[in-house]
Queue: 4 jobs
Job 1
Amino acid sequence: MNRFQCVADLRAEHGVKRLCRVLGIARSSFYYWQATALARAARQAADEKLTTKIAAVHAASDGTYGVPRVTTEFRESGGEPVNHKKVARLMKTAGIARFRLRRKHRTTVADPAAAKASDLIGRDFTATEVNTKYVGDITYLPVGGGKFCYLATVIDLASRRLAGWAIADHMRAELVVDTLAAAERTRGSLAAAIMHTDHGAQYTSRAFADACRRAGVRQSRRRLQRGQRRGGELERDHETRDPPEPKELVKRARSPPRTLPLAAPLQHRPPPQPPGTPQPHHLRTRARPNINYADASRITPCPTSGVRPPPVTCCPPGLRTICG
C-alpha cells in the first residue's frame, strides 16, 4: 500500500503528524500528494487511453512491432507526440511484447557414409492396419542448466499410439535401438513392418540397421529435396513438398522477391505546430534590414586627377579654430 494513502485512511484516528513521523515521510509531501490527486487521476486515464492505442497498433502488426516501431507509427500517424520511454513503460505494464523468433538449432545430422534406403511411405502417413507402418524420431527435452535429455519414440501410423520409447542423456545409436526393442516387446513382433525415419546419424547407423534386420523391419527414409545436402549439412526438420515442375521453377525465378512491410526508419521530426506559434530563434528566417540607400545620382564622385578632397572636420564651421 502507498504510505500516503495509509496516512489518508488513518488520519482521523491518529492524526497526520503522528502517522508521518511513524511512516518516515514529510507532512509537506503528504499534502502535496493530496493536492495532486486529480492530476494523477487524469494522467492515469490518459495512460489507459494510450495503452489501448498501443494494443491496437501491436495487434495490427500481428504482434511484430516493438517499442521503436510503435513509437514511429504514432509519429507518422500525425497524432500527439509520444516519447519512446513512455511507450516502453506502458507496454511493459500491459504485458505487450513483440514476437521474437526462436533460434534454429541443429537437430538432424546425416552420416555421409551411411547406406541409402528408399522412401517406402511416399508421404502417405496413414495406415489401414496396425503393426504395418511406424515412424520414429528424437525429441530434445531441456532439463535446466543448458542441458538436455533425449526422448526417442516409435509411433504406429494406424492407431497413432506410442508403441515404444526410450530416454537418455545422449544421442548415440543405442537410444534408437532400445526404442525399437521396446516397440517389439509391446507389439510382440514387427515382422514385415515399415520403419520410417529421417536421415539422422542414429537411424543410418549400422547398429540400428542390424536391429531392424533382426526384427524383420524394413527401413524407410524420406527423400532429400532442394536445400538439403548430406555430409554433415543441416536438414530441415519438416517434410518437404514434391519437387516443382520446370515451368514453376521458371515462374519463381522471374517473380520479384516478397518483402514484408516495415515501418519507416526512426527520424526526429518536430510535431506540427498551429499557425502563429512563435518559432525558436535558430529556426526563424532573418529578414534583411530595410535600409534606404541614397540614390546614385546624389552621390558625389571622388576626384582622381590630383585634386584632393576637402578635409573632414569634427567641429562646426564657427569652431574650426578651436579644433585646430
Job 2
Amino acid sequence: MQDTFSIPSCFTPGEPTADDPTSIAATRSGRSIVASVYRTMIAGHCRLITVTWCRDVRVHGLSISVVEDSDNVDETNMISSKRHSCKVELRPWCFWRKHGWKRFHVEGKPVDVFWDLKSAKFSGEPEPRSDYYVAVVSDDEVVLLLGDLNKEAYRRTGSRPAAIDATLVSRKEHVFGKKRFVARSILSEKGKLHEILIECSNRSSSSSIGRSNMDPEMVIKVDAHVAIHVRHLQWKFRGNQSITVNKARVEVYWDVHDWLFSPGLTHALFIFKPRSLLHSSTSSSPSLMSSFDGKDSDADGSSGFCLFLYAWKLE
C-alpha cells in the first residue's frame, strides 16, 4: 500500500512502499507512530515540515524534518525530496534530553527546534496530550508551535509569532492490535480529538448445503458511536462511505485486503477525509478520489487535511 495523495494507488495490496520511512519503522520495530505534516514558512519559502512521534516500551522519540524545495513539492513526491532533520530520543534515565534545542540549516539558513517535555503527559500514546511544547524557529519567528505551553515557548525561544499560522496538511497513525484498533486523532485541521475504534470479528453463517462458514465483518466507531458497519467483509474489503461527525461530513475509505488474504504481520489502511456539508457525496466520487493534493481546500468542498490510519494486525 502506498499512502500518497493519489488515492487509487492506495487501494492496492502489498507491503508498505520502501520509500515510506514511517511504515518501515512501524514494521520493523512494532512502534506506535504518529506523523503530522504541516505547511509553513521556513527560510523565506513555504515548505512542508513533518513532525513524527514514536513510542515503544523503552523510549519515546521525536523527529522533525523539512523538505528543502517545497514550492514544487506536495505529499505525492515529498518522500524523494531532499530533507533536513533533527531527532530526539526520550529515555527514562536521560532527564536532560527532555528539554533542549537543536539547530539545522535549510538552504544555508538556520532553523532551531526547541522542546520541553519534562512534565509532558503521554497517556500511553506516542504524542503528548498536555504540559509540553515543541517550537520551530526560522528568521526569528516561531513558524510552528505544538503543545499547550505557549508562553513558556515564546519566552524560551525569544522569538515572535509567525505572521502566517502553520497549516496541518495530513496526519498518519500506526496502531497495533489483534481484533481491536484504537486511535485518538483529529478529523479536521483545527478540530478536537476523537476516539476512533475499529473492530473486526467473524460470524458463523450457514450455507445452502448446511455447512457453517465464517463471515467476517467490521465496525468503525467514532466517539463510541457506530459510524460504519461492513458485513461480508471478504467481498467488501475495499470501499468508502460518508459519515457525519459533529455536523461535519467525513469521507472514509478502507482497504483491509491484506488482513484477510496475506499471512504474517499485515496492515489495513483507513483514510478519513473531511468534506463540506454543502457538497453532496456519492460512493464513487471521482473528484474526491483525486483531490488529495495537500492544498488548503479542494474544489469539491473537501478540506486539505487528511488522516491516514494504518492498523497492523498481530497474529
Job 3
Amino acid sequence: MKDIATIFLSISLLFQTLNGVKAGFLCVDDTFLANSSYGQNRDSLFSSLASQVITNRGFYNASLNSVHAVALCRRGYERQACINCVEKAIRVIKTSCSDRMKSFDWDNDDADQVSCLVRTTNYSTFGKLGLGPATRDISPLDIDSSTKNMTLFRQEWEETVNRTLEAATVNTSVSVLKYYGVVNAEFVEFPNVYMMMQCTPDITSGECKRCLEECVTYFRDMFWGKQGGTICRPSCLFRWDLYAFYGAFANITRVPAPPRPFIPEAQAISVTSLKGKNIAIVVVPSVLHLFVLLGLIRAYRQLKKSKDETSVCAEEDCISDSQFMLRFDLSMVLLATGDFSPENKIGQGGFGSVYKGILPSGQEIAVKRLTRGSEQGEVEFRNEVLLLTRLQHRNLLM
C-alpha cells in the first residue's frame, strides 16, 4: 500500500512539473519529520525572513545548515505591505508544505497592493535559474471571440509582451529588484490591458528572459482565450489581466495600442463577421477619396501651368501658342542698325522700311521701322510678326 502511495505521489509530482499546478505555491520532493532539525532550522529562518527582506531593500537570501531560503517583494513596495505579504507566504508554506523540504510561493495581497516570493530548499539556489515546476492561476472567464477580433488582439498582446519583457530584462535600474517590468496598454477593443513580469535578481538577464518567455509560452499554449492569468516559476513571475493588480500600476502611464497591422485585401474580403463589413465600409470610401485627391492634384497642376504660361506672356508679350515676341530697348535697336542708317536699309514695305542690324552678340537681325503716319496698328503689326514666325526660309532673319 505504501508503495502504491509512493507511485501515486511520484506521478502527481511529474504531472505538476509538466503542466503546473493551479495555485501560487508548490511543495515538492522529500519530506522531513516534524521534530527534525530541518524543520527547526526552517522555522528559525522564517522568524526573521520578512524583516530581513526590508533590511536588504527587497531581496534576501539566507541559509542555516542544510536549509536555504529566498524572499523578495515587488519593486516599489510599501514597507508594511511587504512584511505582511512575506509573512502570509510563510504561513501558506508552513500549513500546506509543513513537511516538504522544497517549496515556493509567489503570493500577493491586493488589499495591501503588493506581491512577494518565499522559496525554501535543502540546497543553495542562489544564482541558479529555477524553471520548474510551474504554478498557474488563470481567470475563469473567456474573451468573447464572437464579438472581439482575436487576431488583432493577439498581435497587440504579443507586442505588449515584448515591451514588458524588454523592460524586465534590460537592467538599467539601481534597485536591488533589477528585473521588473510593468505595462498598461490600450488595445483597440480593450481600454486597459495590464501586464507585469519579475525575476529574482540573483540570476542573469539572459536567464531571466528565458524564464519569462517560458511562462508566456505556457500561457499562450495552454490558456489562450482567457481573460488574464498568472504563471509562476521558482525564478520568475508573469501576470496579465484586464484590471490593475498588486498596486503595480499607480504611477504607470498608459501606452497606446501598437499600430494596427495592414490587412491585405484578400483577407479583408474573407472576413464574414460584422467587423469585416466595417472594414469594407471604411476601405472603399478611402479608395474613392484617393482618386478624388489625385484628380484634384492633376487639375491644380494644369491650372498652375496655365497661369504660369499666362504670366510669361504678360512679361514677354506672348503672341500665340506659347510663342512670344522679345522686346529690345530702343538704344539696343539704334546701336544694332546704326541709328537706322540708310546704308543698312534692305527693304521697303507698305507700312515702313526694313533695316539690317547686328546685335552685340554678333547675331544678325532685321528690324522693321514703321513709317511715321502709318495706318498699321498694333494688332496688324502683331499679326505680321506672327506670320513671319510661322514661315521658314534660309534668307528670312528672325
Job 4
Amino acid sequence: MVEPAYRRRGLGRALLGSCQAWFDSRGVDVVFVSALDERAASFYLREGFRSCTGPWLYRSR
C-alpha cells in the first residue's frame, strides 16, 4: 500500500511491475491478490488482474 501523500505518482504501478518481473523471472504463472478495499481492487483490475471469488483477484501470464 502506498502512503496517501505519495499516491497518484506511479509508485504502486512501479512496485507491482517489479513484483511481476520477479514472478516472471521465476516462472510463476498465476498471482493472486486480496483486495478488500474498492480502491485497491480497482487498481489491480486496471493493471490486468481479473476478479475471482470474494476479495480475490488474479493475473496469469
